[in-house]
Predict the structure.
Amino acid sequence: MNLKRAAVLPLLLLACLCVSMTACKQQAPAQSAAKAVIAPSKSAVSIARIDLGTSVGADLTVGKSIATFVPADTIYAAVTTAGIAPSAKLDVRWLFEDGSVLKQSSQTLTPTGPTITDFNIANPEGWPAGRYKFEVSIDGVPAGVIEYRVTP
């Protein structure tokens, strides 16, 4: 009987070790989402999140948030704001890595809670490879930025 216990104990420990190693294994995502830097706000309206992707749904959310695009992509930004105000103006700028402004646009909101506003940019000739930024200001105050890149 003690011989059986002595043989089973190492097998049991080995099985526990295998299970714990499998449970701790992390899989790398195929393509990660960009991380937005959100500025603290003293305003009644603030940025809750910024997502980038290649499409938006009827609810204006990005289908799949990504950080890397290809030259032919139309790039969409979904800006989620929080707060309530009679009016808030979102100004956005799309920038190339050298600081050149590719596109500017704005939308005026009348937020009564969480609100999603979408913006997009396209380049019929294709985007040059490199690093880019999407910046958001609320009522003229910088509120958030997200970086992304284009690869061939």
